[in-house]
Amino acid sequence: MFELYDEDFDAMELVEGALLLNRAVNPKTRVEWAESELKRLLQEAELALISELNEKRRFEALLRLFFFDWGFGGDREHYFDSKNGFIDKVLESRRGIPVSLGAIFLYLSRKLGFPVKAVAFPTQFLLKLEWYNEKPIYIDPFNGDYVSEHTLRGWLIGHKGPFAKLTSDDLSEADNPTIIGRWLALLKGALLREEDFALALKCTDLALMFVPDDPYEIRDRGYIYQRLDCHQVAASDFQYFVEQCPDDPAIELLKSQINMMNETQVVLH
Fold this sequence. Notes:
Blueprint (H helix, E strand, L loop, with lengths): L5 H5 L3 H12 L5 H19 L5 H15 L3 E2 L12 H7 L1 E2 L1 H14 L4 E5 L4 E5 L7 E4 L4 E3 L1 H12 L15 H18 L3 H14 L4 H13 L3 H14 L6 H18 L1
Parallel strand pairs: 1-2
Antiparallel strand pairs: 3-4, 4-5, 5-6
């Protein structure tokens, strides 16, 4: 039974919380192997950086090691594949998405003493490097590039529209529960696209442990149950959403689905 709470996730490294999340979604996740691989990479990084005393050059060396020598990078061909959300698979393939790659790099950076933090930017996961008494530097963990605030404004406008403004909240440090919540949503979306409804259902059940009675999660659970031919449960979840969110644009469609499933139950009985 998965029983971790927000304070538990905040007491561990992000990548460690992600591994627990991964195993809760898919028990076949190789947690022990991933933990061993993370330790191995950390030891290799320590040896590679041992002769460099300047902290900024040490960090540049870590960037090169991670993105060039080790070959970690974004999965451009299969970005939305669910494997990119599982840490063990990302460590094995060295391909992932910003949040999975970023969690691994963040773990190594923090263990090596670099002032790197996580940012849940609206468009994607970012890393923020804050040298003492200097302006923050932002890093795209998809490719290891530094990202200017001008580029971040462009991303935000593309995401929210031409009147979007970049604020300090957009670039503030994010806590682990916030990132894990977004990670879980990404995993669920990928698994739904792949029609792996059994694992997608686990994602929804996990989300409801953290935000009980969330009507949108319950609506999504209803959709999954519908695809699993559990029509009675699906109709109940859809009905809950209709009652809680009567002004949602999808209400009429859901009502139609409820009526159809209820009629199916009557015929079957």
